[in-house]
Amino acid sequence: MSTTTTLPAWQLSDQDLTTRLLTTQRQQNTAYAAQLETIREVESRGAIPEGYSSTAAYLATILHVTPREARARLAQATGSLPLTWKALTEGEITAQHAAVIAEFLADAPRWLTPEDYTVAEDTLVTLAAQANPGTVRRAATRLKIYWDNDPAEMPGSSPAPGLDPDASSGTDAGSDAASARPWREFRWHWTRTGRFRFTGNVDQETGTLIEQLLVPLAAPDPATTPDTPDPRTPAERHGDAIAAIVDLAARAPDLPSKAGERAVATVTVDLETLQSTAKAVFTDDESVLPASHLRRILCDARVYPAVLGTEGQVLDLGRSARTATNAQRRALAIRDRGCTFPGCDRSPKWTTPHHIVHWANGGATDLDNLASCCERHHRLLHHSGWQILLRDGVVYWIPPSLLDPEQKPLRNTAHNPPPTPLGHSRWQAATPRPAAAPHPSAAAS
């Protein structure tokens, strides 16, 4: 038995702590699969002691779970989920993933062929192996919309709470003026420690829009294990969400210009310093910027190379190096469909083009050297051991050895389109899907 499983956690190294987290999560996954197999056998035998009205009632009592959870586990154990069962048995997905997939496929249209059903399950299981259950649920929702083909049933069509779309904006002059010029305030200042502090308030319509942006962007990161939730506080998560919104706005094509062009920061740094491990550089407003942050910012910035003489005079100020063009951004949106980090479902509008080979190291602003990253994973790429590569037009992320000693390249499947039905259309007769899968032991073989 390895030391990572026998020693107390406080005696483990940082790397061994991560190894134990990953190992124990896989153990939880396989243990849950073993429990489902047992539940299926109990149900098939009818091995319920006298005094219990059903298998679900028996499970709720002896496992100390709610009746709803007992029914859910029974459904997972007896349903037609061979691919889900296999992934769970191998420890690749969690109990929450299995619950989301089982709940969704239980409500799948009856006109689906068995092949359609299998393709849909495979799509969700593949995504579950790299994404959190919330992302899998959103993918399942998109698949359901695709199946239903009914825009009226798409989520998000209802008005925001507190807003009546049919309500009048008021008839008096005061309300008309308020509608034409709503009351909004924003105050800000720089602190001595270089922080940007702000306060303010906005009208209800703008506040609702901000809330709708913040809620999905400030969602907690998926937990590595049930006992390791996102360490960020709600305020910190909302701060990261604001940073993502500002990052998107800064890249808007119609952003007002300053001195004839969009936001510009002039940084004086020689190429050797930028390529090296320098800790800090100075901007034109005399503030200090970590060199690692500068390298990340320059991935999508307008760069002005300046040649300086020995006395510091400017000998030549070159033209700004071209960043990704609008045509390239559109091509990336088609190719990558959004952030390329495994399991991330941020759409193209929330991403920036990242140079796979940094421009300072000779990387060109070409499609075969660009990859789409959202603000959060762009930062992760620059400040962690993750790396990326492009192979046959597909972006792969290579995890640090701490997370995967083999460093297997991972491909994001969160943006994959819903699988096209393989059989007849929904309006024609179709072979009904199987009511139950083979016994779990056979499905896992």
Residue fraction in strands: 5-15%
Please bin the fraction of helical residues.
40-55%
Gross morphology is globular
**Largest sheet data:** 3 strands, antiparallel
Main structural class: alpha+beta
> Which residues sit in consecutive blocks of at least 5 with pLDDT less than 50?
150-176, 258-262, 313-321, 423-445
List the total number of helices.
Answer: 16
Textual characterization of the structure:
The chain is an alpha+beta fold. It has 3 domains: 3-155, no CATH class; 251-321, no CATH class; 324-423, no CATH class. The chain has 16 helices and 12 strands. It has helices at residues 3-6, 14-45, 55-62, 67-78, 82-89, 95-106, 114-128, 133-148, 173-180, 204-217, 234-250, 271-275, 291-297, 326-336, 375-382, 440-443, and strands at 185-190, 196-201, 267-268, 280-283, 288-290, 306-308, 314-317, 351-355, 370-374, 387-391, 394-398, 410-411. A 3-stranded antiparallel β-sheet has the order 3-4-5. Strands 10-11-12 form a 3-stranded antiparallel β-sheet, with no helix packed on it. Strands 1-2 form a two-stranded antiparallel ribbon. Helix 2 packs across helix 4 (67-78). The chain is globular and about 70 Å long. The protein starts with a helix and ends with a helix. Pfam families: DUF222, HNH. Residues 327-379 form the HNH nuclease domain. This is DUF222 domain-containing protein. Residues 164-180, 429-445 have a biased composition (Low complexity). Residues 150-180, 406-445 are annotated as: Disordered.
Task: Give a topology summary.
Layout: H1 3-6, H2 14-45, H3 55-62, H4 67-78, H5 82-89, H6 95-106, H7 114-128, H8 133-148, H9 173-180, E1 185-190, E2 196-201, H10 204-217, H11 234-250, E3 267-268, H12 271-275, E4 280-283, E5 288-290, H13 291-297, E6 306-308, E7 314-317, H14 326-336, E8 351-355, E9 370-374, H15 375-382, E10 387-391, E11 394-398, E12 410-411, H16 440-443
Domain HNH nuclease: 327-379
Region (Disordered): 150-180, 406-445
InterPro entries: DUF222 (IPR003870), HNH (IPR002711), HNH_nuc (IPR003615)
